[in-house]
Amino acid sequence: MPFRFDYAPGTIRYGEGCVDALAEELAAVGADDAMVVTGRTVGSTAAVMEPVRAGLGDRLAAEFAETTPAKRFETAGAGAERFADSGADALVAVGGGSSLDVARIIAALSAAADPPDVVHDTFEETGAVA
Q1: Which of 5, 98, 105, 108 shows its CA 20 to 30 Å from the CA of 72?
Q2: For residue 73, what is the domain's CATH number?
Q3: How many CB atoms are closer than 10 A to CB 107?
Q4: Which residues of 12-37 are buried (b: 16+ CB within 10 A; e: fewer)?
Q5: Does residue 53 fall inside a structural domain?
Q6: Segments in the chain below pLDDT 70
Q7: For the chain, what is the domain count?
Q8: In Å, what is the CA distance from 79 to each residue of 20, 36, 64, 84?
Q9: DSSP 8-state symbol, 113
Q10: Is 7 a domain residue?
Q11: What is the pLDDT of residues 33-49, one digit of tens each?
């Protein structure tokens, strides 16, 4: 059964056909283009990704299909670099918890004033991303 759960600052959509409205979701939050964050398996599965691509249409700026269950900081740092290079202003995580977690870290790194290596060192010292 499809559902939509809104929470600040994001929205979770789940269920068959939920990707059909991705472009409208971006418009609703004032975003222009998105980078899709997913794992390699999901990212290489056409039956999953083609509907996502179609749902985003010309709002798809980039894909980052490198998340893993390990959720390495370096992976998120690479994702943040890809996000910045893509010109996207929104993230769409596709898949399970790892993709959602890495997308959240990418968002935090992208909003941080410092580069990822400085954020990493600060996090190790303080336990917070500031």
Answers
A1: 5
A2: 3.40.50.1970
A3: 20
A4: ebeeeebbeebbebbeeeebebbbbb
A5: yes
A6: 1-9, 127-130
A7: 1
A8: 24, 10, 6, 9
A9: S
A10: no
A11: 999 999 999 999 999 99
